[in-house]
Design goal:
single chain, alpha+beta, two-stranded antiparallel sheet, 4 strands
Length: 100
């Protein structure tokens, strides 16, 4: 297992994590069948913007199983350490996001 050094949050999250977390919390609370979708920032889906940084941070290893390289043995996704359904305000918080 490699040690992960958390880098500073990407600009899109620094500027918007609170608002986007509140929006998701409200929508999921008001509609139990609400389907989560990543927000867009400057015309790009947030996953496109943050996946490269998560991949660099983990040195292309899965945060859960340490599989290497990502995308071969493990599908490259973004997961939440604290589940977004239970912790909706942490949905866009950088330290809650993991690459795998």
């Amino acid at each position: 297992m490699i040690k992960i050094e958390r880098t500073p949050a990407p600009e899109c999250l620094q500027e918007n994590y609170k608002q986007w977390g509140h929006e998701y919390a409200t929508k999921s609370r008001n509609n139990s069948s609400y389907k989560f979708q990543w927000k867009k920032w400057k015309g790009k889906v947030v996953t496109i913007l943050i996946k490269p940084e998560l991949t660099r941070m983990t040195k292309n290893h899965c945060s859960f199983c340490d599989s290497y390289p990502l995308g071969i043995a493990a599908q490259q996704t973004i997961d939440h350490f604290r589940p977004k359904k239970q912790y909706p305000l942490l949905t866009y918080v950088w330290h809650n996001l993991l690459g795998n």
